[in-house]
Amino acid sequence: MKKFIDVSKNAECAAAVTWALENNVTSGTSETTFSPDDICSRGQIVTFLNRAINKKRQIGYPKQKTV
To answer: Helix %, strand %, coil % for the chain, to 5?
Structure first.
């Protein structure tokens, strides 16, 4: 995992940051920063969600039943 100077391994968001990096949802804001306290734009959120959904499809999760 990348080392970010603004996310310690004990940070509340550390597990989520690790997951996002490992699943190519995001790569941080620079080579050394993740910027966990920055506000995400609508475009960034849409990109993150799209990448996460595509990752789920690649893994082959079963479709959820509708009620």
So the answer is: 40, 0, 60
AA identity, residue 15: A
Listed in sequence order, the residues at least 6 apart from 25 whose beta carbon sits closer than 8 Å to its beta carbon are 19, 48, 51, 52, 55
pLDDT digits (tens, 9 = 90+) for 6-54: 999 999 999 999 999 998 999 999 999 999 999 999 999 999 999 999 8
Between the CA atoms of 50, 52, 57 and 58, what dihedral angle is there, to the nearest 10 degrees? 110
Alpha carbon 26 to its chain centroid, in Å, reads 5
The one-letter amino acid code at 9 reads: K
DSSP state of 24: T
Task: Tell me the C-alpha distance between 55 and 29, whole Å.
Answer: 21
